[in-house]
Amino acid sequence: MKFIYKSIITFFFVGNIQFAPGTIASMFAMLVWFFIPLNLFIQLSIILILLFLSLFLCYIHSIESNIEDPSYIVIDEVIGMFISLFMLPKQLSFYLLAFMLFRIFDILKPSIIYNAQDLKHGVGIIADDILAGLFTIIILNSILFL
């Protein structure tokens, strides 16, 4: 059971990579998402299932560990990237722009994104990435529908 738990929070051990695990996990998430059908029900279901599973696992991690937001937990970047790509056309330009915007928001943490990481019980691990993903998809949809 511990193996499954570690596999999920590290996105199949991508989080164990020493250099920029969040960026690498975001890249892999982008590649995975490209193969998910452009279907509202499927995409929303994947995001919601992964979100609830991740919240549960990050809650468990916060109880078992004294580390607030360790770099090896990258499932939050995966969720944020999935949100960033939600229902976007399967075009390289949109995917790359989503990747860059998401990483900028995730790294710089402007506005409420910074405050979200302070939430307790594992929620802060995921909350900042959810907001970064939401900021990204709002910007991309504004560009798409101009």
Topology (elements, then pairings):
Layout: H1 2-9, H2 21-34, H3 40-64, H4 75-85, H5 92-108, H6 112-116, H7 123-144
Helix pairs in contact: 2-4, 3-4, 4-5, 4-7, 5-7
Describe the structure.
The protein is an all-alpha fold and 146 residues long. It has one domain. 70% of the residues lie in helices and 0% in strands. The chain is built from 7 helices and no strands. Helix 3 packs antiparallel against helix 4, helix 4 crosses helix 5 and helix 4 packs parallel to helix 7. The radius of gyration is 14 Å and the shape is globular. The termini are far apart.
Which consecutive residue ranges, at least 5 long each, have pLDDT under 50?
A: none
Would you count the extended β strands for me?
Answer: 0
What is the string of SSEs from the N terminus onward? HHHHHHH
- Could you tell me the strand content as a percent range? under 5%
C-alpha end-to-end distance: 48 Å
The class by helix and strand makeup works out as: mainly alpha
Largest sheet, in brief, is:
none
Which bin fits the share of residues in helices? 55-70%
Mean pLDDT: 93
How many structural domains does the protein architecture include? 1
Q: Count the DSSP helices.
A: 7
Question: What are the key terms here?
Answer:
mainly alpha, 7 helices, globular, 146 residues
In short:
The protein is an all-alpha fold. It has helices at 2-9, 21-34, 40-64, 75-85, 92-108, 112-116, 123-144.
